[in-house]
UniProtKB/TrEMBL annotation:
The EC number(s) this enzyme carries: 1.10.3.11
Membrane topology: Multi-pass membrane protein
Entry protein name: Ubiquinol oxidase
Recorded family membership: Belongs to the alternative oxidase family.
Length: 333
């Protein structure tokens, strides 16, 4: 038994396996996976299988079993393959403000923030030009099948729509990134701003999947919609970024509306105001006793910020300028 397996054994003995089962979710798993010396390649493969089986959820139950089995295997046989720390890839221990260990690997303490709830939720860009009207009508049309399919199932609706909402920022950021490379030009911070938006939307999704478990046909729908929407938005952004950003601005206005309806149903008791997922408490620096209502409130504020960023971006193009000529709202939440 080599020294790393011995360490794993000692750790298991001291903690009674608790170190593998404690903690919240993907973050905990991630922290452990970076500790090369204690994890073999086989373990990482098993972890991948476990994560897949968990189906995006951060509920640690299945993963715990796999990890425990792996540790037990090392104890029994001592022939597990151990990856050395040759590459130096180990994340330093991080702490929360209250001194407890930082459990997440999918986002860091410096990525967290307190949502600005003072933002004006009622702002609306009145469509004036032909392209504005096209964008507005397109979004209103897209809302019809969404309303029919989901009706007032706002949890499910939010989860599905977040899979789409995280696409435009990534597409826009990617195109600006490539343009920056081609033209040897600075982006004015817009690459970062748009990628931040994509990441923020993805965190909305990671939060919603804690509350709503997607069914197989919903996963299939996501695959289909993503395949179509990614490509359509990519082409649209190449042809007319001002229209693309205007469409997203109106989509975000609809998102603010949907989350407002979501809140109404929570307040009326139609949707249970369950405790906030751990990932949301850390990401938005919410109090420990935060609830779904708090989470939806901060997500709605994020959507209002995205609305402003995208209408602003479209306005810049309308003035005949490129985005890089105006300061990008980096870190705007
Ligand atoms: Fe969102
Ligand atoms: Fe959004």
């Amino acid at each position: 038994m080599n020294k790393f397996a011995t360490l794993a054994l000692a750790r298991g003995a001291v903690n009674g396996g608790r170190s593998w089962s404690r903690g919240y979710t993907c973050g905990r798993a991630g922290v452990e996976s970076w500790k090369g010396p204690e994890m073999g390649h086989g373990s990482l493969v098993l972890r991948g299988v476990a994560l897949w089986r968990r189906g995006m959820s951060s509920v640690p139950a299945v993963e715990e079993k796999v990890e425990k089995r792996e540790v037990e295997g090392k104890e029994e046989g001592g022939d597990g393959v151990v990856v050395s720390s040759y590459w130096g890839l180990s994340r330093p221990k991080l702490k929360r403000e209250d001194g407890t260990e930082w459990p997440w690997n999918c986002f860091m303490p410096w990525d967290t923030y307190q949502a600005d709830l003072s933002i004006d939720l009622s702002k609306h860009h009145v469509p004036k030009t032909f392209l504005d009207k096209v964008a507005y009508r397109t979004v209103k049309l897209l809302r019809i099948p969404t309303d029919v399919f989901f009706q007032r199932r706002y949890g499910c609706r939010a989860m599905m729509l977040e899979t789409v909402a995280a696409v435009p920022g990534m597409v826009g950021g990617m195109i600006l990134h490539l343009r920056s490379l081609r033209k040897f030009q600075h982006s004015g911070g817009w690459i970062k701003a748009l990628l931040e938006e994509a990441e923020n939307e993805r965190m909305h999704l990671m939060t919603m999947v804690e509350l709503v478990k997607p069914k197989w046909y919903e996963r299939l729908l996501v695959l289909t919609v993503q395949g179509v929407f990614f490509n359509a938005f990519f082409v649209l952004y190449l042809l007319s970024p001002k229209l693309a950003h205007r469409v997203v601005g109106y989509l975000e206005e609809e998102a603010v509306h949907s989350y407002t309806e979501f809140l109404k149903d929570i307040e009326s008791g139609a949707i249970e105001n369950v405790p906030a997922p751990a990932i949301a408490i850390d990401y938005w620096r919410l109090p420990k006793d935060a609830t779904l209502k708090d989470v939806v409130t901060v997500i709605r504020a994020d959507e209002a910020h995205h609305r402003d960023v995208n209408h602003f971006a479209s306005d810049i193009h309308y003035q005949g300028k490129e985005l890089r000529e105006a300061p990008a709202p980096v870190g705007y939440h």
